[in-house]
């Protein structure tokens, strides 16, 4: 659709553009849900560039705060790779200046030579100009392998980080607003719009037919399940962790999002388990995580069918 904005281009609304428009509307009304920044803490920025455009993600403590991307301008298409990657960094610094200026920031890029941008002896005029801008910020540039730093792809998909944030309750959001001293939380209605389908909705629907969770519900009613509870929406929780039904597709989605997305960066089984257990619970989850990581690290082709194996546990 962006090409229609160019001068002299006739307006031709094709099926592909209609599909892109529908997809855009869907993305705007569907998770991921972003979190609010804490200006007393440091930030992390992931940057990437290609011959199509620039992409970057602003994060804090593993949670996504904002996404930004744009197409390359005509004169930028001829930039060398080094300049394109540096342009992505500059784009992030400019668009999020109100967050990053004066705060410590770590920037990750998949272009290794950018690590040494501050000590390079020979720079072209464009690089010198950008370097002057970069020096205004308290930042460190780190190299991140391309396979793990797929930010351009991550901009078009839901990550585990967002999947976890999507379970944040409206009350928690009100507390965050109140901490910002905005002065309106107690005087207005905080409105949300319904994002469908969400993982929480999928879990809720399948909990109704899960035999083990039905048994837990009965135990809750009898007062024999002290660590479990059922909320007003009928969702069963283990402490503060949602109970995941015995459905292969849901478990596989949770595991893959926790391990394979741009920001999880293929963690080991111990870290992945500790990350997941903050939000999710099911019988045999620790073993499921260990087996998933083992399969992923040895043979990605063996993914299919592994869920059935650990469900037997």
From TrEMBL:
Origin organism lineage: Eukaryota, Viridiplantae, Streptophyta, Embryophyta, Tracheophyta
Protein name: Polyprotein
InterPro entries (alphabetical): DNA/RNA_pol_sf, Integrase_H2C2, Retrovirus_Pol_polyprotein, Rev_trsase/Diguanyl_cyclase, RNaseH_sf, RT_RNaseH
Positions of the Reverse transcriptase RNase H-like domain: 38-137
Entry keyword set: Endonuclease, Hydrolase, Nuclease, Nucleotidyltransferase, RNA-directed DNA polymerase, Transferase
Location of the Integrase zinc-binding domain: 249-298
Top-level taxon of origin: Eukaryota
Any one Gene Ontology molecular-function term assigned to this protein's record: hydrolase activity
